[in-house]
Design a protein that fits this description.
The chain is 43% helix and 12% strand. It is an alpha+beta fold. A hairpin with a 4-residue loop joins β2 (98-103) and β3. α1 packs across α3. It starts with a helix and ends with a helix.
C-alpha cells in the first residue's frame, strides 16, 4: 500500500474540503482509492491466515464511501478526511465485531471489536460477562492485551485525536439499569462498546514488516471480539 500517496491526498482534502478541489484532483483520488483497496485485499489475506471467517471477503465488501452524508450533520464538508475498511465476516454494516483499518494523517489505527451496539445487545453482553467473568478477564486482562490496548476507557478516539491505545470508545457514568452497583468488575459493565485499538504510524502499511505487527494486534484482540460475537450472533 502506498500510504505516502494516500496520506498526501488526505492532507489535501482536509485542507480543501470542497467539490471544486476534489474534482480537480479526481484522478489522484481514483489512484488512491484503487491503491487502498489493493492494500485492504492484502490485509484480508493476512487476517484469513488465522480467521477463516473473513477469507471470502474482498476490499469492496469492506470499504466505505468517501462522500459524507451531511443531511443531519452541522458539518457540511462533502468528503471524509480518512479512508476506512471494516473487515467483518457478515459485511461492513453488520453488528458483529470485526477488524477496522483507519488511515488519517497523524491518526492511523488498527482496531478490533464491536461498535455502538444497541441497548438490548449490550445488556446481553453485560450479562454474559458477569456469567463468565473468569473467561472474560482472561481475554482482556492478560499481559499482551493490557500492553497493546490498556484498560477500559482510558484511551480517546475522536475525529481529531486518537490515543496510542484504547479499549472502549465510551462508557456510562453510572451503573447500567438492572445491574448491581457493588459488582466487583463494574468497569466492564459500564462500557458502551467493546472495541480495542492501537494507533500506528502513517507509514505502517509500507513495505513488508507490517504483516507480523498486524497479526499481533488482531490476534491479541480476537478472543475479546469472539466473546462478544457469541452474544451478537444470537441477534443476527
Amino acid at each position: 500500500m502506498n500510504t505516502k500517496k494516500i496520506i498526501h491526498f488526505l492532507k489535501g482534502i482536509a485542507a480543501n474540503n470542497n467539490k471544486q478541489w476534489f474534482q480537480e484532483h479526481k484522478a489522484e483520488y481514483d489512484e488512491v482509492k484503487a491503491d487502498f483497496e489493493k492494500g485492504v485485499d492484502q490485509i484480508i489475506s493476512c487476517l484469513a491466515t488465522f480467521d477463516e471467517e473473513v477469507s471470502h471477503l474482498t476490499a469492496k465488501d469492506c470499504t466505505y464511501r468517501f462522500y459524507r452524508d451531511v443531511r443531519f450533520s452541522p458539518d457540511k464538508s462533502p468528503y471524509k478526511r480518512h479512508l476506512g475498511a471494516y473487515i467483518c465476516a457478515r459485511g461492513r454494516k453488520a453488528l458483529r465485531g470485526g477488524y477496522y483499518i483507519h488511515l488519517q494523517p497523524g491518526n492511523c489505527l488498527v482496531a478490533v471489536g464491536c461498535y455502538w451496539l444497541p441497548t438490548n445487545i449490550l445488556t446481553s453482553c453485560r450479562n454474559e460477562i458477569m456469567a463468565n467473568i473468569d473467561e472474560w478477564r482472561k481475554d482482556v486482562e492478560n499481559e499482551d492485551f493490557l500492553n497493546l490496548f490498556g484498560r477500559p476507557n482510558e484511551g480517546e478516539w475522536t475525529d481529531d485525536k486518537v490515543s496510542k491505545k484504547g479499549f472502549g470508545l465510551a462508557a456510562l457514568k453510572t451503573v447500567p439499569k438492572g445491574f448491581p452497583k457493588d459488582y466487583e468488575h463494574l468497569q466492564y459493565l459500564r462500557m458502551k462498546d467493546y472495541c480495542c485499538w492501537v494507533k500506528v504510524a502513517d507509514d505502517f502499511f509500507e513495505g513488508d514488516g507490517w504483516v507480523e505487527q498486524l497479526e499481533r494486534i488482531c490476534k491479541t484482540g480476537k478472543p475479546m471480539m469472539d466473546f462478544i460475537n457469541n452474544v451478537v450472533d444470537d441477534y443476527e
